[in-house]
Amino acid sequence: MSYQKLLDILSPDRPILDVARAVLSAPVRHLFMIGTIWYLAKSAAGRPLNVLEIGSWYGASALSWAQGLACHNGGRGSVTCIDAWAPFFDMANHADADYARDMEASLASDCAYNIFLHNVKSMPASITCQHMRGQSASLLPQLRRDHFDVVFIDADHTYEPVKKDILESLPLLREGGIVCGDDLNLQLHECDPELAQQSGHLDFIPDPKTGRNYHPGVTLAVAEIFGQVSSWGGFWAMQKKNGGWQPISLKEMPVIYPQYFSAADLARAESHFADIRDNLC
Ligand SMILES: C[S@@+](CC[C@H](N)C(=O)[O-])C[C@H]1O[C@@H](n2cnc3c(N)ncnc32)[C@H](O)[C@@H]1O
């Protein structure tokens, strides 16, 4: 029996996202992904919105983009997913990280890829979803320039790869489009900058200044390319305007939770959102 047939029997018509490590980022960030579509839909006048995501894993963020298109843009749009679905951590530097070991195993066995294929089947039929399996460095230069309304960057979080992903993405956005990404737990002005500079090759480390864990590669790359960016709970975004990049405001966005959230993810997102709602930009 094929992997897909088995997953269809185990979870017919329902994505599998209530398993360990399925929703990798802080669940609250998905509210702001859906909010980003709300922001763009205000001026899209019903035009289809095209989303590109780099790093799709089990498909949770792809389903959030699709839900945003369904709720705010009449289901008009596309979600294009790029992922190698292959091990990518430098395990010599991450041997003690349980999450990295678990991800490598799921990627190496093709479990992650098959769960993604199953999960994106639950997108509304009006939304075109396509995926490209390969390294972002090879695939991004092949994509249409000035085409996408959103490019979401969530693949390898170490400095060189994430910087390359951002730089390769910028020409793909049309005027008014939004480049965004996950896992900006701290901006450079908030953390110890010297430690960040020395640690770009590491995925996730503690910051001595704030006592919080963060991804130094994302922090460094974002700061070098844009300076300070608009961000909400670790999800960041900038809009292409008149040849430059400007922050956006999601302060007034309707708060919509992904339909696929487990009870635990919903509770985490609600509690996190309650903590940050009074200080949203
Ligand atoms: C953090 S996960 C993505 C999570 C997903 N966006 C979500 O929120 O559901 C990172 C993904 O990036 C992929 N990845 C890492 N490096 C990559 C590369 N150089 N090219 C393509 N995909 C890559 C991995 O296979 C993994 O599935």
Features:
281 residues; Rossmann fold; 8-stranded mixed β-sheet; two-stranded antiparallel ribbon; 37% helix; binds S-adenosylmethionine
Describe the structure.
- With 281 residues, the protein is α/β, with parallel strands linked by helices.
- It has a single domain (3-181, 233-279), classed as 3-Layer(aba) Sandwich (Rossmann fold).
- The protein has ten helices and ten strands.
- The strands form two sheets. Strands 1, 2, 3, 4, 5, 8, 9 and 10 form an eight-stranded mixed sheet that branches. A two-stranded antiparallel sheet has the order 6-7.
- The longest helix is centred in the first third of the chain and has 16 residues, at 29-44.
- It is globular.
- The model has no long low-confidence stretch (mean pLDDT 97).
- It binds S-adenosylmethionine.
- The site of S-adenosylmethionine has 21 residues, from helix 3 and strand 2.
Indicate how many domains the architecture comprises: 1
**Poorly predicted segments:** none
Mean pLDDT: 97
Number of helices: 10
Bound molecules: S-adenosylmethionine
- The CATH topology is given as Rossmann fold
Helix fraction by DSSP (H/I, runs of at least 4): 25-40%
Order of helices and strands: HHEHEHHEHEHEHEEHEEEH
> What Rg is obtained from the alpha carbons, in whole angstroms?
18 Å
Main sheet: strands, sense, barrel: 8 strands, mixed
Q: Name the overall outline.
A: globular
Strand content: 15-25%
Distance between the termini: 50 Å
CATH architecture label name? 3-Layer(aba) Sandwich
Label the structural class: alpha/beta
CATH class group: Alpha Beta
- CATH homologous group name: Vaccinia Virus protein VP39
| Structure summary, number of beta strands | 10
